[in-house]
Amino acid sequence: MAKLVFSVLMIVVWWMLHALQMDEEVAMGTVHEAKRAVDRAAHAAAQQLDRDKLEMGVLSIQTDLAEDATLAYLRENLSLDASLSPLPGSFLRDTVEVRAFEIVNEDAVFPYTYSNSLYDYEVTLDRPGVVLVVHVVYPRLFGVLAPVEWDLEGSAELVY
């Protein structure tokens, strides 16, 4: 009888450990998908040329178009609504926050090193570009575990 109880308890423990491992796997998949979305959003923002300045031969990113492109790409790639809250069926459950959005334009001296000590992020840009930091929360599958949170950084330069 003791061996039977021990076996049942060991099976339960094994299932719990297996479930925790699967939760970690899903969390890693979430961070990879979210990081790709941040990279795509930064790249889309960096491609928003200011056409008026381009006519004068100056490469510059148009701020309002860049912000719109960033939000559009985040919404599309992460299945978010206009307020960056997850839509039904999204792999996220909490609102996504854009913590930093910086446009480095033609007024900077290139190569330009952007540094943000708050997020421990540094990148060197060789031409006008965008730097983006987005906060994403992954809700754990088991309520006893705290959610996992990431500040995902992305940057992109204007490609011409």
Q: What does it look like?
A:
The protein is an alpha+beta fold and 160 residues long. It has one domain. The protein contains 3 helices and 5 strands; from the N terminus they run αααβββββ. It has a 3-stranded antiparallel beta sheet, covered by helices on one side. Helix 1 runs antiparallel to helix 3. The chain is elongated and about 85 Å long. The termini are far apart. The relative contact order is 0.18.
Q: Stretches where pLDDT falls below 50 for ≥5 residues?
A: none
The total beta strand count reads: 5
Total helical elements: 3
The domain count comes to: 1
Distance between the termini: 75 Å
What characterizes the major β-sheet?
A: 3 strands, antiparallel
Strand order of the largest sheet: 1-4-5
Shape: elongated
Helix content: 40-55%
Q: Strand percentage, roughly?
A: 15-25%
Question: Mean of residue pLDDT?
Answer: 89
Radius of gyration: 21 Å
Multimeric organization? single chain
What's the SSE pattern? Answer: HHHEEEEE
Computed structural class: alpha+beta
Brief digest:
By secondary structure, the protein is an alpha+beta fold. The chain contains three helices and five strands, in the order αααβββββ.
Labels describing this entry:
160 residues; alpha+beta; three-stranded antiparallel sheet; two-stranded antiparallel sheet; 41% helix; 24% strand
Question: What's the helix and strand layout?
Answer:
Elements: H1 2-46, H2 51-55, H3 63-78, E1 97-104, E2 112-116, E3 121-125, E4 129-138, E5 148-157
Antiparallel strand pairs: 1-4, 2-3, 4-5
Helix pairs in contact: 1-3
